[in-house]
Amino acid sequence: MTLFLRPHSFFLKKGSLLTIFLMVQLTFSQNTSITISGDSKTPSEFFAELEDKSNYTFFYLDDWIEDLEIKENFVDASISEILDTILSGTTLNFYLLEEEKRVFLLQNTVVYDQLPPSFYQQNDSMASVQIASESRGNLPPPTFYNDEVSQTAQKLPVVRIGRADEQNLKSTYQLSGKVINAQTGAPIPDLAIRVRGSGRVAVTNEQGEYELVLPAGYNLISTSAMGIRDSEREIIMYNNGTLDLQLQESLEQLQEVVVEADAVSNVEDAVSGSEEISSEESKDIPLVLGERNILEVAKALPGISSAGEGATGLNVRGGKTDQNLVLLDDAVIYNPTHFFGIFQALNPFTTEKVNIYKGAPPVEFGGRLSSVLDIETKNGDTEKISGEGSIGPVTGNLALEFPIKKDTSSLVVGARGAYADWILKALDEESLNNSEASFFDGIIKYHHKFSENSEIRGTAYYSKDNFSITSDSLYNYSNRLGSVRWAHKLNEKSTGVLTASNSNYNFGIDYEGEGNSNFELDYTINESELRYKLNTRLNETHTLDYGLSAKYYGVEPGNVEPKGPNSNVERISIDKEQALEGALFIGDEFKVSEKLLLNVGARYAFYAAMGEATQNTYQEGAPRSESTVQDTISYDSGEFIKTYGGPEARVSARYLFTPDFSVKASFNNSYQFIHTLSNNTTVSPIDTWKLSDLNIKPQKGYQATFGFFKNLNDNMYELSLEGYYKQMDDVLDFKTGADLLLNENVETEVLQGEGKAYGVEFLLKKNRGDFNGWLSYTYSRSKYRFDGDTSEERINNGEFFPSNFDKPHDLSVIANYKFTRRYSVSMNFVYQTGRPITYPVGTFRFNNADYVTFSDRNKFRIPDYYRLDLGINIEGNHKKNKLAHSFITIQVYNVLGRNNPYSVFFVTEDGEVKALQSSIFGVPIPSITYNFKF
Q1: What is the pLDDT of residues 67-105, one digit of tens each?
Q2: Which intervals hold domain TonB-dependent receptor plug (predicted)?
């Protein structure tokens, strides 16, 4: 390598490496003493005087030193002491040739005067050279840069970051900074910053800030975001440093916009078994009566199903419906469906997305065994009034967004109503002519941003259903909830979120029959929670989540009041139940290496059932009944009846083989202190919730998972295969013919046993293109065992039997094809193994009476379920200036007219036992829905 030197400048050309320095060792003499003052001198004047007084010749470029501020005064100082002082805090280093009396100022880098033996066998275009370990120890290689490599499209100057320190060299350095819009000066959030040739990606936060770990030496980074012109920058990392970017807006007219902010999250995240569904994903999926239903879309994902068509609740990985924690803006919603599960109780136009955690959930969530469904409402538009709505054959939806203060606060208001009574009256069935079925729901969300470091959000929601299938009873149920969430930044490393919420679920029966038996029944469960969660980024490898939560339950198990002055129904009131539930939690996302990421967390859950109440104790070894009551204990108001609790683990690990292929594993355990009481095959709106107490233990669950995750064709396709095994203890079931509603001693009807579930989940998803959608398949089993001390407390002689929702094979296909920007078609196909059922297998005669004998519990199955839905989507024209954008969906639910059985039951006619089946939709159901947006 040839070196050309002249005073005040030097140049490095390809193929050279300062060979002139190879013969010289740095042995600077400390005998020269210099007295010099930096006051009132420009940098050029200072260096000129330093040259005169030291007899050294300096080599540098003038623009390197023009920003130096030299204020120090030196007395009898060596030249190295002077240079160390004035160059400290800058990106300049220096190199001294004592014998030649020369000083070279260096920008960012340092001079290495030893080369490895293999240097001359390396390619000239190399970005760095590995220094021999015997000559430099285990230090990382020095950085060399070839000017001819710089060929970026925009030809921006190379950026050098940091000042090399030969005593503290590292293999990687941290780059941070802020990205702003060059036109407006506003920060640019959600900008992806990628490092070419590696899987390193950073995304800017709401303030436009980013942090990125880069290898030492040469790097090429690219930036991309919606509405921002793509750019590339060449960076040479010598040390930690900052780089602020000013980017130009992109005004190109795009054929198609694809948002991929989380394109590789399915591979890179440590948490497995998690899914995210946006409300927009339900837009083109054909469902019953044209209704968008984000919960119905969730059933098309692997590991999630329901007991049957029109069944309320989800069964996740073999768990019961009550084992799911469903949250709407951090508040629990106990029944998120309308009309027996056919419609969701969520306005699709105010719903942003739902995050589903089937495996180890985030450490702040607890209280359920199977899953967490975290539903988030969108924030309103802070610039202009906008809205979205639809008119269908059964429901009308409307959502409006109002800016309260521009760029600061907004309000979202949503409302839905049903007018389904006309369908029941139009059916050719006289018994349904007087039937009633209606519902409505409404939501309000206020969002206010105080500053870049503080914001608050408040949500209020209410829904109500009324239905009457018979002429004498009117059923109703309602959800009411509210939540307030304050998010604030404590410092540069820590943020906090304080959440307060209240939830209320109520159902009632208004009975008016013949005679004097009219009554009104009501049931209520209410809970309030306060939670504080903090997030602290300790360093590049550790990010902590920690906090605490406290919850209060109040349950009114049922009250009956006579209706009317002539009713002879007695007043009944079951004692109120109360309990406290709390948790302490901490989690750490630990980046062990670029390939290995751990997410480790621990919770301690605490629960206490409280008085005022009375509790029975029963004789040991005998079945619980009124005849085996041993004692009745009274508890004062606020007195603890029974406490439960224990530690919960959350452990997830991800190993990244390549940037688009990873393996994940997880383990978690949890407690559940609240249960549903139902002896129906499927969930009913009038199922009651029961708190753990002296006689009913909390449920406990343990789950382990292992899976492979792969992205293909530049993240166009997602492929995953994941297996799980779940163990459950003290799950509830009920004795045959159990009487649950208004039962003061409901523990006499309850059995507690164990369950197990296992399965394999497969998902293939195409994320973009004219043809997109996904295929999911699940093979799973869900079994339970109840083996009590007596025959009355055993089911199937204490052997495992399939649960009511055990469906080994579950296949779903969602497909959309876009012909043009305005016209598309969609398909939804579902196949499931028929659910288990108990059949009568014979009859016998005893004391001149006929009796039926039944098979083992759930030994047989109803016919398999399959259904095909088709839809056509017609977008309105795309003119810019028009009142509203509209689109029409034409859909046919159950195109094949499959008479899928909802349930099978048995009747005795003329001395014979006959099997009958009921279906929800046995014929094709067409619908047309008009949607608009402004």
Answers
A1: 788 888 888 888 888 888 888 878 888 888 877 788 888
A2: 290-368
The per-residue pLDDT for range 349-404, each reduced to its tens digit, is 999 989 999 988 999 999 999 999 999 999 998 889 999 998 888 888 999 999 99
**Six-digit token pair at 704?**
């382990």
Contact 283, 290 (CB under 8 A): no
Q: Given pLDDT bands bounded at 50, 70 and 90, which one contains residue 328? A: very high
DSSP classification of residue 625: S
Regarding whether 292 and 189 lie in a shared domain, the answer is no
Read off the CATH number of the domain in which 232 is found: 2.60.40.1120
The amino acid occupying position 579 is A
302 and 227 in one domain?
A: no
Q: Is 501 in the same domain as 595?
A: yes
Q: Would residue 630 count as lying in a domain?
A: yes
pLDDT over 80 at 420, yes or no: no
Domains held by the chain: number: 3
Element (H, E) at 54: helix 43-54
Contact between 528 and 552 under an 8 Å Cβ cutoff? The reply is yes
The predicted structure's pLDDT at residue 5: 39
The domain that holds 95 is classified in CATH as 3.55.50.30
Predicted model pTM: 0.72
What are the E-state strand segments in 538-595?
542-562, 572-573, 577-591
Q: How far apart are CA 683 and CA 521, in angstroms?
A: 19
The separation between the first and the last C-alpha atoms of the chain, rounded to the nearest angstrom, is 67
Which one of 339-343, 362-366, 713-717, 749-753 scores highest in mean pLDDT?
A: 362-366
Q: At what angle do helices 79-87 and 43-54 cross, to 10 degrees?
A: 170
Q: What is the mean pLDDT of the chain?
A: 83
Q: With left for phi above 0 and alpha for psi between -120 and 50, is residue 89 left, alpha or beta? A: left
CB atoms inside a 10 Å sphere around CB 755: 24
Whether omega for the bond prior to residue 612 falls within 30 degrees of 0, making it cis, is: yes
Q: Among 142, 148, 137, 146, which residue's Cα sits nearest to residue 109?
A: 142
State both tokens at 45.
Answer: 């004047």
Cβ neighbors of 507 (< 8 A, separation 6 or more) are 475, 476, 477, 478, 522, 523, 685, 686
Q: Are residues 241 and 318 in the same domain?
A: no
**Rounded distance between C-alpha atoms, residue 793 and residue 790, angstroms:** 5
Residues 648 and 758 in one domain: yes
pLDDT class for 925, splitting at 50, 70, 90? confident
Domain-embedded: residue 508: yes
As a whole number of Å, the CA-based R_g of the chain is: 35
Give the integer Cα–Cα distance in Å for 43 and 71: 10
Task: Tell me the pLDDT tens digit for each residue of 745-788.
Answer: 888 888 899 999 999 999 999 988 889 999 999 999 999 999 88
Report d(CA 892, CA 923) in Å as an integer: 10
Looking at residue 713, which CATH number applies to its domain? 2.40.170.20
* SS3 of 415-477: EEEECCHHHHHHCCCHHHCCCEEEEEEEEEEEEEEEECCEEEEEEEEEEEEEEECCCCEEEEE
Amino acid at 50: L
**Residue 258: inside a domain, yes or no?**
no
CA neighbours within 13 Å on the CB side: how many for 507?
16
Say if residue 543's pLDDT is above 60.
yes
Q: Please choose, from the candidates 355, 370, 374, 373, the residue with its C-alpha nearest in 3D space to the C-alpha of residue 668.
A: 370
Phi, psi of 419 (to 5 degrees): -135, 60
- Closest among 625, 621, 619, 629 to 748, alpha carbons compared: 625
As a 3-state breakdown, the chain gives helix, strand, coil percent values, each rounded to 5, of 10, 50, 40
The pLDDT tens digits for 220-239 are 888 888 778 888 888 888 88
What's the CA gap between 595 and 663, in Å, rounded?
A: 10
Domain residue limits at 169: 147-253
